[in-house]
Write a structure and sequence with these properties.
single chain, 127 residues, alpha+beta, SH3 type barrels, 2 domains, five-stranded antiparallel β-sheet, two-stranded antiparallel sheet, 23% strand, rod-shaped
């Protein structure tokens, strides 16, 4: 089952639940309340499945440094200390860890801790 059909199923179960809740308000009976419990439980289960499915599809962005020499920083601004003793060079590949105020937090393979670079000095590759 794909994410779209899961969301449609959740919406349908949600709609049925509300119809049963309104019906229970007009015709209060124990049997109707028990019937309304089924869509509630199914809807809760579908919500959990959709949430787990969404978590599993997190997009990982990768990119390449464009600037010939770029001093990576320990924080998202040029006032932070350099992350390395030497600058990184054009063509350096990285994985995006975070993003803040026009800066990318990146992880470079074999470089240890993540560092920060200006977003406009790199290009992100399509996942």
């Amino acid at each position: 089952m794909n994410a779209v059909s899961l969301k449609i199923s959740f919406a349908a179960v949600h709609a049925v639940l509300w119809v049963l809740i309104v019906a229970a308000a007009f015709w209060p009976s124990r049997a109707l309340r028990r019937v309304a419990l089924a869509p509630l439980l199914i809807g809760a289960a579908l919500a959990v499945v959709i949430s787990v499915d969404s978590l599993g599809k997190r997009v990982i962005h990768e990119g390449v440094v464009l600037e010939s020499e770029l001093m990576a920083r320990k924080g998202p601004a040029s006032i932070y200390e350099p992350a390395f003793e030497t600058p990184i060079h054009a063509g350096t590949e990285f994985r995006v860890v975070g993003q803040k105020h026009g800066w990318l937090e990146i992880a470079i393979s074999g470089a240890g801790e993540p560092c920060w670079i200006p977003a406009n000095l790199a290009i992100l590759l399509d996942p």
